């Protein structure tokens, strides 16, 4: 009886250990099942960024906006159904989230080289974000893999949980804290705004009504963002929007942050010193950005038997 109990206990411990190992993300998840998966993602991302450098920032943003809404599960890619409304319709994503066609292209190519759909759309988003940053001169990092795809999406959660460009520093800190991210993560990941553009409607109030802004910068932005109309007109988040560099943080120090939430990081608060450090130290920024991207990519992933590997990233199997 004693030996039988020991056997059963050992078996349970083994199964739990096995499940724990399987449920954790790791960089080598596809090494045996499809060793060409990651090189294929890199190739397609490289081609897309070569065609349009702006696409790099768009793909990075897709991963960010995916992870902040119920975890990194590719829910942002799902189109609306009778069961749920797509997160693409949420206020922070509508008419601004882009790159979906590139993700579809990656999925098609990866499934072809792998011989079957073994790579999740969630993992494609995570790897494409990393490869986009690298393609535009930024750091690399080991992307932990093994995420599975959600079977639902939530426009409401996207509206509630994605940081808004109107947020002050305490609101930003709380938004990131809700995702298990700290103040350093907030500042480092905000540095992703070294890439890409924003729409006039999101920074109009800042350039016309706020006082913690360089007057010449405000005047320059007003030339393409009138007080009435023009809400979809774009402006770069920093003056090198297709290069991963420290210009974003240098702008904040000079009161040239485009969004209210950007300048909130350097406005007499607790994040001022880190912004100053990043503005003059590309190595420190790159290192912390990479670490925070790994941390963000680990937000509530679906693993083991939860979720699915979608055949088409736009819809549930």
From TrEMBL:
Entry coiled-coil feature ranges: none
Residue numbers marked as site, Transition state stabilizer: 61
Top-level class of the enzyme under EC nomenclature: oxidoreductase
Transmembrane segments: 6-25
Disulfide topology: 34-114, 67-72, 121-313, 200-225
Binding residues annotated for Ca(2+) 1, in chain numbering: 66, 69, 71, 73, 75, 87
Cofactor names: Ca(2+); heme b
Residues of the active site: 65
Primary localization class, coarse: secreted
One GO term of the biological process aspect: hydrogen peroxide catabolic process
Binding of heme b, residues: 193
Keywords assigned by UniProt, alphabetized: Calcium, Disulfide bond, Glycoprotein, Heme, Hydrogen peroxide, Iron, Membrane, Metal-binding, Oxidoreductase, Peroxidase, Secreted, Signal, Transmembrane, Transmembrane helix
An example Gene Ontology CC term for this record: extracellular region
Plant heme peroxidase family profile domain residues: 24-317
InterPro entries in the record: Haem_peroxidase (IPR002016), Haem_peroxidase_sf (IPR010255), Peroxidase_pln (IPR000823), Peroxidases_AS (IPR019794), Peroxidases_heam-ligand_BS (IPR019793), Secretory_peroxidase (IPR033905)
Positions with a binding annotation for substrate: 163
UniProt cross-references to PANTHER family, sorted A to Z: PEROXIDASE, PEROXIDASE 72-RELATED
Similarity annotation: Belongs to the peroxidase family. Classical plant (class III) peroxidase subfamily.
Its job: Removal of H(2)O(2), oxidation of toxic reductants, biosynthesis and degradation of lignin, suberization, auxin catabolism, response to environmental stresses such as wounding, pathogen attack and oxidative stress. These functions might be dependent on each isozyme/isoform in each plant tissue.
Protein's recorded name: Peroxidase
């Amino acid at each position: 009886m004693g030996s039988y109990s020991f056997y059963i206990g050992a078996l349970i411990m083994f199964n739990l250990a096995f499940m724990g190992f399987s449920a954790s993300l790791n960089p080598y998840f596809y090494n045996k099942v499809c060793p060409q998966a990651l090189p294929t993602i890199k190739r397609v991302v490289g081609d897309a960024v070569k065609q349009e450098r702006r696409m790099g920032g768009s793909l990075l943003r897709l991963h960010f906006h995916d992870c902040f809404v119920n975890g990194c599960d590719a829910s942002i890619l799902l189109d609306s159904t009778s069961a749920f409304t797509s997160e693409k319709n949420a206020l922070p994503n509508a008419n601004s989230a882009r790159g979906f066609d590139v993700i579809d292209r990656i999925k098609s190519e990866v499934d072809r080289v792998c011989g079957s759909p073994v790579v999740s759309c969630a993992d494609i988003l995570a790897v494409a974000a990393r490869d986009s940053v690298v393609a535009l001169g930024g750091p690399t990092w080991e992307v932990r893999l093994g995420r599975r795809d959600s079977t639902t999406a939530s426009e409401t959660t996207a509206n509630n949980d994605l940081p808004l460009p109107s947020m002050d520093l305490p609101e930003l800190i709380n938004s990131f804290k809700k995702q298990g991210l700290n103040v350093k993560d907030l500042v480092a990941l905000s540095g992703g705004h070294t890439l890409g553009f924003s729409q006039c409607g999101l920074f109009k109030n800042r350039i016309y009504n706020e006082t913690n802004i360089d007057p010449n910068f405000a005047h320059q932005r007003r030339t393409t963002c009138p007080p009435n109309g023009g809400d979809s007109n774009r402006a770069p988040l920093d003056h090198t929007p297709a290069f991963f560099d420290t210009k974003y943080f240098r702008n904040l120090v000079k009161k040239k942050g485009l969004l209210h939430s950007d300048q909130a990081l350097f406005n007499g608060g607790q994040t001022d010193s880190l912004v100053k450090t990043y503005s003059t130290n590309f190595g420190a920024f790159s290192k912390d950005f990479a670490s925070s991207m790994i941390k963000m990519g680990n937000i509530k992933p679906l693993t083991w038997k939860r979720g699915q590997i979608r055949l088409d990233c736009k819809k549930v199997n």
